[in-house]
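Table S2 (continued). Query chain:
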Amino acid sequence: MYGKAFAPEYRGALGELSVNSSLEEVLEKALEQRARAEQDGSALESAHAGLAVAEASRRLGRVAEAEDAWRESYRAARRAGDEGAMAWAVWSGGTLARQRGALALARRLLALAAELAERGGDIVARGYSLAGLAETGRIQGDYRAVGELHEKLLAEARRRGEARHTVWALEGIAQMHRNTGSYDTALAMFEEAAAIAEQADDARGHAWALRGIADVVSLRGETERALELLSRAERTCREMRLVSALAYNHKMRGNVLFRAGRHEEARDCYSGALEEFRAMGEPRGEALARLGLVKSLARLGRDGAETAAELDELSHTLGGFGLQHAREMVDKARTELGLVTAGAGTAA
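Corresponding output:
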């Protein structure tokens, strides 16, 4: 049995904020609380408020503001001598680094956050930091290294009845199964994640789970069902102003439409997602949206040489991020589009 989802990143005087609070509301209250804490000379409350500013800014796609806020939160936590608060600030910085595609930096920061949390006795911060490390490794395609950690964190979350972390772990493991072709297992896990998130009133986790379900059912040819699931998830993303999640939702809609042979609609979705990712400075999402757009344009008659050149560039870009699975997607696109050359394997 799982309790209602909560947001441990909203701390101190902001602890009553809901996991489903509008990000604009969170940002407004956090900025007010940070100013109040600084006026009162409370370094710890300043750290807590700064963390909320960082997380709201990050999720709203305001990268520069998020970067400044997590660093300010860390400095305030250090002044307060609170290693738990320091861990939360560094966790936020690591999560931002992953969002921006700086995966090596993300791993370093998240490992430091886990160490600080352990020294400070903050079990939840340690769990979130380890979860961040697992997710970073999963994004890089290092499934063997992080699969066991995902399973361990899932077992711990189930044991404690922590809905939000259970949902996160289920979605991560499901994504690995989806990427390795175990679609039945992936679908079952995404559906379990969606059910737990809905029961626990975790709107964000529910939206991500619906996106995962849509992906898998689309692979089975259930296009309209997938599009309806994505529309449900989009409503949540818009209500909560989940800018990054919304962009990934639009990219997935492009995937669904492309698989169905609706290439003009897919092109439009990928183009919109590409602009959203660029606006928030999220290069990993930008590269993935570009890949979908390249494939759509190729199906709509774009010159093969131009397509091949852009795929080579994307392979280099994704390789720079260390995204093993994404680079495999570029190789697959070459094959699908009849663009395999003698040097393609080397380029990828």
